[in-house]
Specification:
The complex is a heterodimer. By secondary structure, chain A is α/β, with parallel strands linked by helices. In chain A, 32% of the residues lie in helices and 23% in strands. In chain A, the strands form four sheets. Chain A has an eight-stranded mixed β-sheet, sandwiched between helices. In chain A, α6 packs parallel to α12. In chain A, 44% of the residues are buried. Chain B is built from two helices and five strands; from the N terminus they run βαβαβββ. By secondary structure, chain B is an alpha+beta fold. Chain B has a five-stranded mixed β-sheet. The N and C termini of chain B lie far apart (41 Å). Classes of the chains: A alpha/beta, B alpha+beta. At the A-B interface, β14, β15, β16 and β17 of A face α1 of B.
């Protein structure tokens, strides 16, 4: 049964609740949203909801998948009404079941926030006095999960996308898809500026921006979102403010950090498309690996002096990842950066604008995609060359990526994933908190010589971060490695696996 | 001798001093051609760090050359 419904008529709430009853769950959390009698101080007599149903259903399922993965809940249901509703009617219903209440509360909150922001649902409020207008539900005031560059911008602005919806390939349906899409732009520099401007202008619903740099005066000849007076300020904040001014209805999420192996997949999971705009080859390879692992389409561009390259990886089909094209990442310093080699300002501007075109093409599934080719652009001689490029032969033969199995080869913010210690006492002395993740009968058969915490303690730390450095221990080091990797993906940086597990300990430790 | 056109991108273009040249060569394969050009232009990148395309399709370094081929050497670039 599908977990999301868009209902034109009132729904039997008791039936939704019954569908969630499970003997293994002790926590049930429900949220109901009702039609209120006022909006922004004006009397409301009722409202109409409209949805782009197919997209709303798919997106809703995805939100529930995310909640299951993030919070470990057992199940959830979501119902959103469409059509004419009166004051007091139930407009939205969310139910979540989990073994314990904490996860149920958190997941319920996550789902309603995500639904408000991401589902392509519009409402038209009927005021007792005055005109009515359709607004996207996501256009309401930002909540505390959103980075809130919008806070000071009046929400009454109604964007006019008529110049692009007039294009037959876009139209109203295409515009709704853009509004429902979530795009992550890594790097708010020479490439990222035009990408962000055009995607915000086009009405992409959610734009994530990743950049850890502050603005420098030498950026200004090519990074067109910024001003001289802003030198020294974090680019991610400046870009978010500029985009909010450009199109206040776009939701902007900011990441003022370099992506690392322990955070990148969790971040990619939240977006439909990644646009890679950094000038850092290591970052491009990490993003390529993460795109393969998370099944996220990614669009790469890079520039050199007067030239650029453009290429896309899409999980479906045969487009190549970065390792299919260049299997060995060039050593750090082997490739010149803009700083070393120089770059003409409009060159990243041109390639970034082309990335924006490709991004819109990918979101809307327009014809002529760049998949399975590498586009070379030379602005010295106006040459453009499209070279057919497929996944490499080993990947095609295997039917999957042979280059990347996980991100364990990448350094993480928390240091090495696996650690080896001659004895457990040395690990304790080193400040590690040991977590024994073995089953109760395994622990009984081979008890440890030192105190260790149960698995639940480290799972709790994902929800409520603390300062401990966790060292996970299992029988042979395989389960602990797997769990440590999984926890890092959920955002817990300081977690490690004890290499070799209990089998690697000297007899006195057992 | 085989007459071909070679195009260079990024740092190879910079090191060669031009984007495009026509030349005749006895090189038996793309790999041998690159070795010849590397000597002439002082390219620093190894074949393992490059992609090579012939007539707009990627090829491997063992492929022989044919009259009129357009050969393109492509290094990864990182600027943004």
């Amino acid at each position: 049964m599908s977990r999301v419904s868009i209902a034109a008529e009132p729904v039997d709430i008791a039936a939704l609740r019954r569908a969630l009853e499970r003997p293994d769950c002790g926590g049930f959390c429900v949220f109901e949203g009702w039609v209120r009698e006022t909006n922004e101080g004006r009397q409301v007599s009722g409202l109409d909801y409209e949805a782009y149903t197919e997209l709303a259903l798919n997106e809703g399922e995805r939100i529930i998948d995310e909640a299951v993965r993030r919070f470990g809940i057992a199940d959830a249901r979501c119902m959103h009404r469409v059509g004419r509703l009166a004051v007091g009617d139930t407009a939205v219903w969310i139910g979540v079941v989990a073994p314990h209440r904490d996860a149920a509360f958190r997941a319920c909150r996550y789902i309603i926030d995500a639904i408000k922001q991401r589902l392509p649902i519009w409402k038209k409020e009927h005021y007792l006095v005055g005109e009515s207008a359709w607004v996207a539900c996501s256009h309401g005031p930002a909540n505390e999960h959103a980075h809130a560059p919008h806070a000071n911008v009046p929400t009454t602005f109604i964007p006019d996308y008529s110049r692009q919806t007039r294009l037959v390939e876009i139209g109203a349906a295409g515009q709704a898809r853009l509004a429902a899409s979530r795009v992550l732009v890594i790097g708010a520099g020479g490439l990222g500026c035009p990408v962000l401007s055009y995607l915000a202008g086009a009405g992409v619903g959610t734009l994530g921006i990743v950049d850890s740099d502050v603005l420098e005066a030498s950026n200004l000849h090519r990074q067109t979102l910024y001003a001289a007076a802003e030198v020294g300020q974090p680019k991610v904040e400046l870009a978010a403010r500029r985009l909010a001014a450009l199109n206040p209805v776009v939701r902007v999420e900011t990441f003022a950090e370099r992506l690392t192996a322990d955070t990148i997949t969790a971040i990619f999971d939240r977006y439909d498309l990644v646009v890679e705009c950094t000038d850092d080859i290591d970052s491009k390879y990490l993003s390529s690996d993460a795109a393969v692992l998370t099944g996220t389409p990614i669009l790469f561009a890079s520039v050199y002096q007067y030239e650029g390259q453009l290429h896309a990886y899409v999980p479906q089909g045969h487009s190549p990842c970065l390792r299919c094209l260049w299997p060995v990442p060039p050593a750090a310093g082997a490739l010149a950066t803009c700083e070393q080699a120089g770059v003409l300002g409009p060159v990243p501007g041109t390639l970034g604008a082309m990335q924006a075109v490709e991004a819109i093409r990918m979101i809307l599934d327009l014809p002529g995609r760049l998949d399975e080719s590498l586009l070379l652009v030379n602005l010295l001689d106006h040459g453009m060359r499209k070279i057919g490029a497929q996944r490499c032969a080993p990947c095609l033969e295997a039917g999957r990526c042979v280059h990347v199995r996980d991100l364990s080869a990448w350094p993480t913010a928390g240091g090495a994933l696996e650690l080896a210690f001659p004895t457990l006492q040395l690990a304790l002395d080193g400040g590690y908190t040991i977590v024994d993740i073995r089953d109760a009968d395994e622990i009984l058969a081979h008890p440890l010589s030192i105190p260790a915490l149960p698995i639940q303690s480290v799972l709790n730390a994902v929800e409520t971060p603390d300062e401990k450095r966790y060292l996970l221990l299992c029988a042979r080091g395989r389960r602990s490695r797997q769990l440590a990797l999984q926890l890092r993906r959920q955002g817990l940086a300081r977690v490690h696996s004890f290499r070799g597990g209990v089998a690697a300990l000297p007899p006195c430790d057992e | 001798m085989t007459s071909i056109t070679v195009e260079y991108y990024a740092q190879l273009r910079e090191q060669a001093g031009h984007s495009r040249e026509q030349l005749s060569t006895d090189a038996a394969s793309l790999g041998a051609l690159y070795a010849e050009l590397r000597q002439r232009h002082g390219f620093r990148l190894e074949t393992g760090q490059l992609k090579v395309a012939v007539n707009a399709q990627f090829r491997d370094w063992l492929q022989p050359l044919a009259e009129g081929d357009v050969v393109v050497f492509i290094p990864p670039v990182a600027g943004g």
